[in-house]
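Thread: quick sanity check before group meeting

JM: Hey all, I'm pulling together slides for Thursday and realized we never actually wrote out the predicted structure for the chain we discussed last week. Dropping the sequence here so it's in one place. If anyone has concerns about the input, flag it before I start.
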Amino acid sequence: MKILSPRFHGYIDYAVAALFLLAPSLFGFGGLPETLCYILGAVHAGMTLLTAFPLGAAKIIPFPVHGGLEAAVAVFLVAAPWLFNFDGAPAARNFYIVSGVAVALVWLVTDYRSAYATTAASARYRSEHRSFS
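JM (edit): ok, ran it. Output follows.
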């Protein structure tokens, strides 16, 4: 069930980027989890600004590609505490797991095809990758 519009997804994306940038201060963790949060926040904000959807600024990344990247990020977030060995830090571990689950839920309910047909970047992408078979 795809109930989230591209516009509403954009609002959530900017909120997620802000949350990553604020999380270390809000939840009191530092070190590598803190650094990862700052990187994730900056990358997420950048990706959102570059996405071809209503709240994107540059409209370079097709919205379905954005969705695929978010699906990968959701898995990464849940695995990060064990990948980077901070599973013993409850605040950071719990933040990453909850964030991963939340990103996965947003991914599940977003209509990634809705904006795909109506954006210039998507039309350009489709015309460059058109099959003539």
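AS: nice. The radius of gyration is 16 Å. The chain has a mean pLDDT of 90.
JM: adding both to the slides.
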